[in-house]
Amino acid sequence: MRSRTVLCIRKIGPSEEETLDNTNCLTHRPIEKESCNNQSCPPQWVALDWSECTPKCGPGFKHRIVLCKSSDLLKTFPAAQCQEESKPPVRIRCSLGRCPPPRWVTGDWGQCSAQCGLGQQMRTVQCLSYTGQASSECSETLRPPSMQQCESKCDSAPISNTEECKDVNKVAYCPLVLKFKFCSRAYFRQMCCKTCQGH
């Protein structure tokens, strides 16, 4: 709105006038106020709230939506209708503290390689970051073993006849079994029965 002063005056001389009561003026009284600047204000940028910082640890970013809106905020315009140089930032840096260090993650032990007696079993050992990505920053001195010795039970059926007690032909290490005193183990005693007999 804009306003002005409206007075009822009467000239009483070439350069002199007096102010009268409004009722003394018989003509239509001009308006004192009127609306102005009726054109719409230019669109403006409106920024919504920031998102949470991502990722959850370490350096990251916050994001937000910035819209080009009418001055009464009721209409949304294409971004090109707002001034690009005055646009608020849509991304800022943030941090929620340091991330946990990478660590060794082991899988389950696999089956024993030997169906009877001593063997080996394996498992996966991986260095993973807190997000599950492969990493090379784990300490090798803390690496868990990926292989271990295992032993499967052997059938220890008693030998009833001395003629049945013999070394299995395909086994060539029976003298070593005797030398290293493995005859006490059921698997070697069965495979090298003749060699182990009496020991």
Explained architecture:
With 199 residues, this protein is mostly beta strands. Helix content is 8%, strand content 28%. The protein has three domains: 2-96, no CATH class; 103-152, no CATH class; 164-198, no CATH class. The strands form six sheets. A three-stranded antiparallel β-sheet has the order 5-7-8, with no helix packed on it. It has a two-stranded antiparallel sheet with strand order 1-4. The longest helix is centred in the C-terminal third of the chain and has 6 residues, at 174-179. The mean pLDDT is 87.
Which regions have little confidence, pLDDT < 50, spanning 5+ residues? none
Average residue pLDDT = 87
**What is the alpha-carbon Rg in Å?**
48 Å
Output the helix-strand order. Answer: EEEEEEEEEEEEEHHH
The total count of helices amounts to: 3
**Order of strands, widest sheet:** 5-7-8
Helical amount among residues, as a percent range?
under 10%
Broad shape: rod-shaped
Domain count: 3
Main pleated sheet = 3 strands, antiparallel
Please state roughly what percent of the residues sit in beta strands, choosing from under 5%, 5-15%, 15-25%, 25-35%, 35-45% or over 45%.
25-35%
The assigned structural class equals mainly beta
Distance between the termini: 118 Å
The total strand number stands at 13
